[in-house]
Write a structure and sequence with these properties.
InterPro entries: GPCR_STE2, STE2_TM1-TM2_sf. It holds the Pfam family STE2. It comes from [Candida] railenensis. GO terms for molecular function: mating-type factor pheromone receptor activity. This is Pheromone alpha factor receptor. By secondary structure, the chain is mainly alpha-helical. It is elongated. The protein has a two-stranded antiparallel sheet with strand order 1-2. The N and C termini lie far apart (92 Å). Helix 2 packs antiparallel against helix 4 (104-116), helix 2 (60-83) packs antiparallel against helix 10 and helix 5 packs antiparallel against helix 6 (143-174). The chain is 69% helix and 3% strand. The chain folds into two domains: 21-281, Rhopdopsin 7-helix transmembrane proteins; 307-380, no CATH class.
Length: 381
């Protein structure tokens, strides 16, 4: 059946086309339609979930992630319009004759707009990654490394956006032949079609490496501080969903295969992973129980447990040995900023590990004393 020729007449001329070629065109465009249709549905669901779950809707990272999802939604919608337009019709794919299109300029505008919207999309992705990296190294210990990495990623983002602009301008100029067959496009470098996506993939892979580095450092710091460790399942969830490793793998596969829609899938997964990676970037690692979310709605610890009593007593006794820690209600209320200052001072060597162990032993003695008092009070009753 695939070798059978289809004979048809257009503009008074007869053409022959094998059915295999028709199947190829339909399969090619159907795959793109499926990818962009999935992108539209997933972006809408993610936007709704973020508005429901986020408590700080005015934070910069929330706004950046919302803009990224919005631009991805617009881009996918424009590409669906392009796939349903005259440039993907069988008559144009066979003849490449714009005279068969009723309004070629409008179809050209949709095509260029679908590509041009990629510029603000990539810009928002880069800004979100830079802000997350800035947050990962917010402690005093990594102050110099923070500014170095942020400077490198800012420079890389500027280069990426500039090359994307150059690539879109070149594409728009070369695509004028769609509605103006006599148009002569200018000369553009051959790297303009591949280099933008290559640099974009490199930035995502580098960001994934930094998020994995934070996971390793979190496990190490919790072990030193004597806090409850991340479980194997918790580490697996963070690694697979919050460190951008899956988008990185998909972007790498896009270079090693001939599939033209794999890079689109990689960019979609990157956009959908930004809210999860931002939760990991903003998470605190010095809580009594490990968490990878800065917006946790369910607390896994009990306020009356002996473990919380020991941790709070250790923190309060730790403040007696610090030189710069202020006395006040911050530590008693479990203020997150105060706990981060304690961790920073601990890593900077303000106190030795021996003094920290003495504080934990004192906390355990206080804990046992409280238990004995509670037993005596119950016996009196």
């Amino acid at each position: 059946m695939s070798t059978v020729l289809l004979n048809f007449t257009l503009s008074g001329e007869t053409y022959s086309l094998p059915f295999a070629q028709i199947d190829y065109y339909h399969s090619y465009f159907m795959k793109y339609a499926f990818v962009y249709g999935t992108a539209i549905g997933s972006c809408i669901i993610t936007v709704i979930m973020m508005w429901i779950c986020s408590s700080k809707k005015t934070s910069p990272i929330f706004i950046l992630n919302q803009l990224t999802l919005l631009f991805m939604l617009i881009r996918s919608t424009l590409f669906i319009a392009y796939l349903r337009g005259p440039f993907t019709a069988m008559s144009y794919m066979v003849l490449f004759d714009s005279s068969t299109i009723s309004d070629p300029y409008q179809a050209y505008q949709v095509t260029v707009a679908a590509s041009a919207i990629e510029i603000p999309l990539v810009t928002c992705i880069q800004l979100s990654l830079i802000y997350q990296i800035f947050t990962v190294f917010r402690t005093q210990k990594f102050k110099q490394l923070k500014f170095i990495l942020v400077g490198i990623f800012c420079s890389l983002a500027v280069v990426i956006v500039a090359i994307y602009i150059y690539s879109i301008v070149a594409f728009a100029d070369e695509s004028k032949v769609y509605y103006e067959p006599t148009h002569q496009a200018g000369y553009y470098a051959s790297w303009s079609s591949n280099l933008p996506f290559t640099l974009f993939s490199a930035s995502v892979i580098a960001s994934s490496t930094i998020f994995i580095f934070k996971l390793v450092m979190a496990i190490r710091s919790r072990k030193i501080l004597g806090l409850k460790q991340f479980g194997p399942f918790h580490v697996l969830v963070i690694m697979s969903t919050q460190t951008m490793i899956i988008p990185s793998v998909l972007l790498i596969i896009g270079f090693t295969t001939d599939s033209s829609y794999t890079p689109t899938i990689g960019m979609l997964i990157t956009v959908l992973s930004l809210p999860l990676s931002s939760m990991w970037a903003f998470s605190l690692n010095n809580n009594s129980h490990p968490t990878s979310s800065a917006l946790s709605l369910i607390s896994r610890s009990s306020s009356g447990s002996s473990e919380n009593t020991a941790i709070s007593a250790a923190i309060n006794s730790y403040s007696m040995f610090t030189k710069t820690q202020k006395k006040g209600p911050d530590l008693e209320n479990g203020d997150a900023m105060a706990e981060r200052k304690l961790e920073d001072q601990y890593f900077e060597g303000t106190n030795s590990e021996a003094s920290y162990e003495m504080q934990l032993e004192g906390a355990s003695l206080i804990d046992r004393k409280n238990d004995s008092i509670s037993v005596k009070s119950e016996s009196v009753k």
